[in-house]
Design brief:
This protein is α/β, with parallel strands linked by helices. The protein has 12 helices and 14 strands. It folds into 2 domains: 3-209 and 324-408, Zn peptidases (Aminopeptidase, 3-Layer(aba) Sandwich), CATH 3.40.630; 210-322, Alpha-Beta Plaits, CATH 3.30.70.
Length: 409
Amino acid sequence: MTLGAQLLERLDEAACFSEPGAGVTRLFCSEQHRQVLELIADWMRRAGLEPELDASGNLVGRCDKARAGARTLIMGSHQDTVVEGGKYDGMLGVALPLLALERLKKDGIELDYGVEVVAFGDEEGTRFQSTLIGSRALAGTFDPASLEARDADGVSVGEALRAFGGDPEQIPSLARDPDSVLGFVEVHIEQGPVLERRDHALGVVTSLTGIERHRLTVAGKAGHAGTTPMPGRRDALVGAAEMIAEVDRILNATEDFVGVVGKLEVRPNAVNVIPAEVVFTLELRSPHAEVRRRGREDILAACRQLAQARELSLTVETTYEAEAVACADWLIEALGDACQRCDEPADLLFSGAGHDGLAMCDLTGIGMLFVRCTDGLSHHPDEAITAADGEAATRVLMQFLKDLTVKEQ
């Protein structure tokens, strides 16, 4: 079986650990999370790594050199998904480096530096809205306040971690010593159409977008839908709908600025009651901090004006913010060289999505290798890559790892 076919087989197997329904739904500290870690732990052992669940919910595999204190290259990605997501977002970056290390081991190639592969617990933020808990723990920038975030059932991050086998009090001790780390490398599907349009399998990432998330609460007044006259109604949903339309208008009118209102909650959510409250999320992204700042100010100013016009109250809570970060020049060059040595074009791409590198950059230089995905589709059950592209990415990563050995001698 080819490396590409092995990779897809493993990703198919991991996708079985999902909540019922379309695509893959696997949330942080869920039963599906627990089950998939058993599979990943087996992959780690095959690759010559010793797996361990850390205090923040990451599964970490280390080789003997890493455990002995040698300078270490960290690789990996996240195991969690969005609701009804795909098989490859996140999990590709866990399965692929482990397969590459396993093949290097079978070929008798020993790296002269330590290697650590991490299956980060929470990157998507689907369950708790807070994100990058595991990567911030390793980077030494973990905020204990994030433990108080709660899911839809009222369970806090701290409570979920304890039930899962983590230890919130010990998370600060997970911070790595920057002098002990060579860098961080993540393989990920592109989540966009650029590589497919160029008919290239792989791309090397130059930087990651800045992201911010907000929770907006629009409050009006409930009333009988049949007896309350239309004029003067304080309908929170109508006001929220106008705000969402304005968000879309501003985003479309601003270059290098994207965003989404992805979640909406209506109360009391009854067929014959005027909505009294609407809570909706707002996510904004741009590679340019000033574009994102100005866009946010324009959006929130427009929302406040719309709320005032309908005699509604509006509160805004920022739930997440991360600035854009650049990938390390030496990793961009090294990954590009590995592509060329494997006869793969080394396209340079900007990432419009956030990744664990947004946190890991506070610890060390980061690098990313993108893999073409069908129709540029991600966060969707039809998310796909080909075995040939998986093969190319695995061989490029193997070449990178072997070349890094030479560079460090």
